[in-house]
Amino acid sequence: MKNRKLYFKYIFLILFTIFMLYPMFWLFFSSVKPNNEIFTGIRLIPKGTWQWENYINGWSALPQHTFGTFFKNSFFVVILVVIGTIFSTTMAGYAFARLNFPFKKILFAILLGTLMLPQQVLMIPRYVLFSRFGWINSYLPLVVPAIAAQFAGGFFIYLMVQFIRGIPREIDEAARIDGCGYFAIFWYVILPNTKPAIFSVGLFAFMWSWNDFLNQLLYINDVGKFTVPLGLRLFLDNTAAVSWGSLFAMSLLALLPSITLFFFAQRYFVEGIATTGVKG
């Protein structure tokens, strides 16, 4: 009886997994189909020859820039955003979790209040501010907020605060007896013990920055500076026929970095989310 229930559980999990992965299967098979087969039915596998040239045509769809340029630009922005986000949120989380300073509780309450503020409300003020700085058509509006712990609001700071609160304070006191100051405690004690949370923050920052379309559309105008989301948008030209196969091929390639990163870092990611939820 127990084996029968176990079999049913496995069958249910397999079917549910296939159901959840169906969009990925559809995207892959559509990337090797001609345009006239993609939206004509529910059949996944192409009827005729697999159109692998969709990947070649999609990679060099633009006359002046290949998709390699967009990938290079995206990696440049994402790496800076991830580094800046990890640096700023870990220091801010350490300050709120361990240090005592004036108006600490009030500032932390304001930080939590920013989680409820829609980002659309800040679009126009931010655009006006960055325009006056002369940052339009550059990557500064995308990178500088991450360095200032403004990327994704206070969510990452709150995550780090909750994780650091779960680290025993006795470790800090032992380090202070050995002559460590606040920064030495942060560098040699807090950071090594917050690797799961750091991986979680880095993974979230990577995925959100990699898939960010609206902010990049607002601040970047030069095609040579376009990132992958903006490059995919160039396929949707109202004045010409859309090459859906090439679009889906490049969309599938755009998913690979996030999937690969999550595959190799999933242990730290799951540990960081789980321990952050129960500590504090």
Automatic annotation (TrEMBL):
Source organism, top-level taxon: Bacteria
Transmembrane segments: 7-29, 75-97, 106-127, 139-161, 182-208, 241-264
GO annotations of cellular component type: plasma membrane
ABC transmembrane type-1 domain residues: 71-265
Keywords: Cell membrane, Membrane, Sugar transport, Transmembrane, Transmembrane helix, Transport
Gene3D superfamilies: MetI-like
Signal sequence bounds: none
BP GO annotations: transmembrane transport
SUPFAM superfamilies the record matches: MetI-like
InterPro entries xrefs: MetI-like, MetI-like_sf
Membrane topology: Multi-pass membrane protein
Compartmental location: Cell membrane
Family membership noted in the UniProt record: Belongs to the binding-protein-dependent transport system permease family.
Protein name from the UniProt record: Multiple sugar transport system permease protein
Species the sequence originates in: Halanaerobium salsuginis
